[in-house]
Amino acid sequence: MPNAQSPILNPQILMSRLKLATVWLGGCSGCHMSFLDLDEWLIDLAAQADVVFSPFADIKQYPEGVNVVLVEGAIANEEHLETIQIVRERSQILISFGDCAVTGNVTALRNPLGSAEPVLQRSYIQTVDLKPQIPHEPGIVPPLLDQVTPVHTVVPVDIYLPGCPPSATRIRTVLEALLQGEKPHLEGREFIKFG
Known about the structure:
- It is a single chain.
- By secondary structure, this protein is of the alpha/beta class.
- The chain has helices at residues 11-15, 30-36, 41-48, 78-90, 99-103, 117-126, 168-179, 189-192, and strands at 18-24, 49-53, 66-72, 75-77, 91-97, 144-149, 159-161.
- It has 8 helices and 7 strands.
- The chain has a single domain, classed as NADH:ubiquinone oxidoreductase-like, 20kDa subunit (Rossmann fold, 3-Layer(aba) Sandwich).
């Protein structure tokens, strides 16, 4: 994690193109939709950064050497757990992107049930009219974790970007600071309000 005395990004990175990634874990994709709300500023961003991984692009494996990653969603299943560890290992700056990534939010509403089993029963048995069964074949449904957790409980997080979803203004503020080699300063209701 960068310290307060050094620039948040290596100055040599800023002289070339930033490698930017976005990841979608347990969430609704609202944060990614808010990212698209950057509208014409996306053209300015594209002039300074390459999107090297995202649900917006057909890239199958998370690459090495990512400078900045926005991680949407909480850790809700074994696939998320594996993904976030790879993302952290291969990324310089990890941003918890939205309330689910920061706190667990809506995704964690199943936690008081104690385990994933009641959710599976409700989804695949109780509300199904034809052939109710919980899928057990590998690769169909990633095994759910008993508790949904925010990203920082699994890996270190460098920047928290709250909001459900965070506004395009918040996202732009964070990315503009990083593109200038600075740590973003999110202060005031407009930038740190949850929900």
